[in-house]
């Protein structure tokens, strides 16, 4: 069955946007995934097609109305089989590769993109939306965040990535950052490629790559390294690599 994304947004013209290009675009044309958008404004009930209102309790900005957002989400639900519904928000759990893998393995996703100060909390609770953040910074709307989440999922769908872009070794696949890459020329501006990569010894290359992946993770992401070490030490860590989480 085709993996289907339904995006609930005030800016439907932002989709598929960059996802219409490159491998994701080819996957879309090949029917590996599909996307539809629901324009939240189309679910407003008044003459002015109002989607927001002032916050109870006062303060700056506007809040998206629960009744209008709920109607749009109901229509999105009808567009595909039982799919998880995600509200993109800086208040959410951080997006990581484990969540991306889970979402990519399912039938698809419904994505709610906020604007203004965000969405009335009651519709988030009533619909049991999963709240997901793409990082500790604030965007002006959920659309770029939805594109990020979709890109990460789509590249994992069967038939989207070519063999050359294997996901097996890349950063976060096994809890480590990836090793560095080199290509021709072997000497560039006086900088030589690490000799082991020219040696033709596959086992030595694999060992070097593992060491460099561990070094990069230890130096750049102590948080990931701590998890990696904990997993390795855990009973049942059979092959010396942590279970990706
Ligand atoms: C200006 S932001 C609202 C920020 C909100 N008032 C807060 O402080 O948490 C408008 C919308 O952008 C989206 N957004 C902003 N930053 C995001 C992030 N880091 N991850 C996911 N979505 C984000 C959300 O959909 C949000 O409702």
TrEMBL record:
It catalyses: guanosine(37) in tRNA + S-adenosyl-L-methionine = N(1)-methylguanosine(37) in tRNA + S-adenosyl-L-homocysteine + H(+). S-adenosyl-L-methionine binds at residues 114, 134-139. Keywords: Cytoplasm, Methyltransferase, S-adenosyl-L-methionine, Transferase, tRNA processing. It is found in: Cytoplasm. Gene3D superfamilies: 3.40.1280.10, tRNA(m1g37)methyltransferase, domain 2. Residues 5-226 form the tRNA methyltransferase TRMD/TRM10-type domain. Specifically methylates guanosine-37 in various tRNAs. This is tRNA (guanine-N(1)-)-methyltransferase. The lineage of its organism: Bacteria, Pseudomonadati, Pseudomonadota, Alphaproteobacteria, Acetobacterales.
């Amino acid at each position: 069955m085709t993996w289907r994304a339904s995006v609930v947004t005030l800016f439907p013209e932002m989709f598929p946007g960059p996802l219409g290009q490159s491998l994701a675009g080819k996957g879309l044309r090949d029917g590996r995934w599909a996307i539809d958008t629901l324009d939240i404004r189309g679910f407003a009930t008044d003459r002015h097609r109002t989607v927001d209102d002032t916050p109870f309790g006062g303060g700056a900005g506007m809040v998206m109305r629960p009744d209008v957002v709920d109607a749009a989400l109901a229509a999105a639900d009808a567009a595909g089989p039982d799919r998880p519904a995600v509200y993109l928000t800086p208040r959410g759990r951080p997006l990581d590769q484990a969540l991306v893998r889970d979402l990519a393995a399912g039938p698809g996703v419904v994505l709610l993109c906020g604007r203004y100060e965000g969405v009335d909390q009651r519709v988030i609770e009533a619909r049991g939306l999963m709240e997901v953040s793409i990082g500790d910074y604030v965007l002006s709307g959920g659309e770029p965040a939805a594109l990020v989440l979709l890109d990460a999922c789509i590249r994992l769908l069967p038939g989207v990535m070519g063999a050359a872009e294997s996901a097996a070794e890349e950063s976060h696949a096994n809890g480590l950052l990836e090793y560095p890459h080199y290509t021709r020329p072997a000497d560039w501006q006086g900088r030589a490629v690490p000799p082991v990569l020219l040696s033709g010894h596959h086992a030595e290359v694999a060992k070097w790559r593992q060491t460099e992946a561990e070094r990069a993770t230890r130096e750049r992401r102590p948080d990931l390294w701590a998890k990696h070490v904990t997993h390795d030490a855990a009973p049942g860590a059979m092959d010396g690599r942590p279970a990706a989480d």
